[in-house]
Amino acid sequence: MHVYIFFVISILSGVWGLRNMSVRMPVAVRAGDRLRIACDYDLENAALYSVKFYQGDTEFYRFVPKESPPSRVFPLEGIQVDLSRSNSTVVTLDKVQRDLTGYYKCKVSADAPYFHTAEQSAPVIVIEEPLLLPRLNVEKSKYSANERIRANCTSEAAFPAANLTWLINHIQLRENPPAIRVHNRLLIDKLRGLETAVSMLELEARPGYFVEGKLKLTCLATQYNLYKRNASLLLQEDTPQLAPVMGATAPHSHPESRASLLTTDCTALWLTVLTVTVLSR
Ligand SMILES: *[C@@H]1O[C@H](CO)[C@@H](O)[C@H](O)[C@H]1NC(C)=O
Ligand SMILES: *[C@@H]1O[C@H](CO)[C@@H](O)[C@H](O)[C@H]1NC(C)=O
Ligand SMILES: *[C@@H]1O[C@H](CO)[C@@H](O)[C@H](O)[C@H]1NC(C)=O
Ligand SMILES: *[C@@H]1O[C@H](CO)[C@@H](O)[C@H](O)[C@H]1NC(C)=O
Ligand SMILES: *[C@@H]1O[C@H](CO)[C@@H](O)[C@H](O)[C@H]1NC(C)=O
Asked: What is the pTM of this model?
């Protein structure tokens, strides 16, 4: 399930002998995992002279068919080439670490008579998962109508910082409605090179947010498609108990009608509940 960055060289179109060159690798990889960098090219019947792989501008692997053995590794700190998984189109690095984040380049040269050369590069990020699971804090757990709910979510010590998103009753807040404020902060530990993400959420406890008296608040921490963890809490609606005026039907027995009342105030809500109760009799 890797998302591949795909670069197709355009300046070479029309040049005979080396076409459709691209470098393929995941956008991000976990520290300690294996990184596979593929270099695709079409020599169009020309012979391959060499393929070279670089981290930044430093070469670490070369494949030259005419040499014996054809594969050669150049020592570069932190890079462990797995020769058994490397050839003329692929180089595999074992146990990559965070400082190998950066650009990787592949340079292909065709053999005589044209010696065409082309190169392409692409970035990769070596991530460190957050040291701790996301933490969710609220000031209190019970809210009366229109009180402010304030919550903080923290995802500690990662590289790069996890993205934090909020869900209310399993629904993701994408563009924040006017009554909801989200403030994100980044704390950077320069010594360890790790980042802590903090997100502060503030919203009004509207009755419509509570389903059967409860609001489920979730904070989701993600890093690309590699890390996904969440923390959640159930907040309670602090409402005076309504006397059973309309028979046995409880006021909280219509979650569907209540869920759609996100903008009504408390009075309107109770009126609606009563109306629904009357209609359902
Ligand atoms: C190379 O590119 C051409 C045109 O851009 C395309 O028709 C062809 O299928 C490509 N070949 C490969 C092997 O991707
Ligand atoms: C290089 O290795 C990759 C993966 O191990 C494989 O898919 C590919 O066919 C190999 N290429 C050549 C030219 O042997
Ligand atoms: C959230 O963080 C802010 C700033 O650190 C702090 O002032 C506030 O008390 C925190 N709120 C909660 C609910 O933890
Ligand atoms: C966070 O989200 C942004 C926007 O969707 C994305 O560009 C970025 O790569 C994400 N970062 C991480 C660490 O997942
Ligand atoms: C939160 O985590 C729990 C347990 O891992 C999982 O069942 C649930 O689907 C997650 N929720 C979201 C919104 O990702």
From this structure: 0.77
